Amino acid sequence: MTAPTAPASSRFTETRDFLQQIKDRVGLVVVGQDVVVERILIALLTSGHLLLQGVPGLAKTLLVAAISKTVDLAFARIQFTIDLLPSDILGSEILDQKTHEFRTHKGPVFTNLLLADEINRAAPKVQSALLEAMQERRVTIGNNNYALPVPFLVIATQNPVEQAGTFELPEAQLDRFMLLHRLEYLTNAEEIEVLRRNTKLGVRREGKGAVARTEFDTIGDKPIGSLDNLSKAMEDVQNVHVSEAFLEHVVAIVDRTRKHPKLELGCSPRAGISLVKASRARALIHGRDYVLPEDLFALADDVILHRIRLTYEAMAEGLTSQQVLQEILSEFDA
Amino acid sequence: MNGALLRSLLVVSLAAAALLGQTRDQRTSPVGMRAYIEQLVLPGAEVVVGKVDHADPVAVRIVKVWPHGSIFRYDLEWTGLEPGSHDLKDYLTHKDGSSNDDLPSIVVQVKPTLAMTTTEPTEPEPVPAPRLAGYRTQQIVFGVLWVTGLLLILFVGRKRRVKLAPPVAKPTLADRLRPLVEAVAADKADTAAKAELERMLVSFWRLRLDLRHEKAVAALAAIRQHPEAGALLRQVELWLHAPEPPRDFDLGKLLEPYRAVTADSLQPIAKEATS
Known about the structure:
The complex is a heterodimer of chains A (334) and B (275).
Chain A: H1 13-29, H2 34-46, E1 50-53, H3 60-70, E2 75-79, H4 86-90, E3 91-96, E4 101-106, E5 113-117, H5 124-136, E6 138-141, E7 144-147, E8 153-158, H6 171-174, E9 179-182, H7 188-199, E10 203-206, E11 209-212, H8 227-238, H9 244-259, E12 263-265, H10 269-285, H11 293-304, E13 309-310, H12 312-316, H13 321-330
Parallel strand pairs in A: 1-8, 1-9, 2-5, 5-8
Antiparallel strand pairs in A: 3-4, 6-7, 10-11, 12-13
Chain B: H1 2-20, E1 28-30, E2 34-42, E3 47-49, E4 58-68, E5 71-80, E6 84-87, E7 92-94, E8 107-111, H2 135-155, H3 173-185, H4 191-208, H5 216-225, H6 227-241, H7 251-255, H8 271-274
Parallel strand pairs in B: 1-8
Antiparallel strand pairs in B: 2-5, 3-7, 4-5, 6-8
Helix pairs in contact in B: 3-4, 4-6, 5-6
């Protein structure tokens, strides 16, 4: 028997090179966050939104800034606080003193990449305003409706500690995020590399003064691709083949979350859609023109975990959503 | 002066003696009021009050007795309980038990305090007396009823317990894998069955390589690294998921080793063999 080998996907060579260059460029600035970079690219290629959960100081902002500059995307960052208002994000109508007419002031949401830092610190009204914009990709200011720029990607962050004074996102709103990725600390080797790079940053002179350079200064200003490249990559994602068997796998997993006795809330149909979309993007990033079960397994945590809720009894037993999901994936054949 | 005082004292003393010396002979009295007949001399032996009956219309009491020669003198107290004429002799008897026929009649009159025409109070309706006894019996009866009710609840109207059939042993992965392999080899499997076959092959090798405790994604990566399992998995993936599955491999031959898998085949293989 001759074992067939996976056919090289020559169709997507250009896109694969483009995505690899992004990863390489970001890798020059951010150390050891390959999976996060991959998740951001998946969100970018599928027009999904990403929620990053992790303690401060894991280079979330740096990462998003690096990607935006690499692909020539407009980037904005909003620090969510309790006194933030919807108009601070969306914009508002301002009375022009000279013309005595109202002028629309567009808020920071009018960008390509929006980093919503610590989204759970804002009041639910503000969270809803942003989540509506994420869903509809349009915002209404006064009587006018404005389309958001394309691509539009929200990367929100949540701090898993310091929960006092925060407004936890309800499941219905979490469902709008295609992926929720949990950031972890770097390995020791990666952290040493971070420190090593940091020692070589030096000082930047400004006029007669000087300021210590940061990692943000190392982000190359010249983008390696344009919006056209990104649009082409997004089109290629749509051409990644999804087999009927793969859809069976997705439905089997989603269905098991709905029937599992330890789960009070299973996956929504949107979870299945997100799994397929994200798997297609991942397959493309990994140089394949078809999805595989490994894509499903690799993305299950990020796509499913924030969409399921344990029963009270399961929580009392000390179980976590992750353990239940692993049980579902482990008994893949059931 | 002294003579006048002495005369006054003498007059007062005489008056007091006269008052004290008065005897009462009350033969008439209203109902319920006490009356006295004093210094009454009765013949014969000493007299006492006879046997008292609560139904008697008159109550008599002998207050004092004095010898009076060979006979006796008495102070009597009487109370009339019913209006009319009554003879106190009927209530006296000799102390020695002899007949009181020798006694004279001592007739008294008892006057009613209300007019005779006064309407008599209505006779109250007889009310049954509350049950004062039988508490223990009552408790016993209630107890018996309660136990009876409990027994009825427990045993009456319940479906007879059906003897459950012994649980059917859940088919093992090997039992489920074999028919699927046969169906796929015979090209009779639909997409769902093919997908299930892939899931079962992953589980099969997960057990064989003892990767049960690994995370699913790590386990799949380890399976793909294994020479035999990895080759199989890659071919199955191409067959199932590639847009144009290669036609240069024989699916029946590929799945041949899995046609005869048994529960023993699911045992983890030795570590050295996994490398």
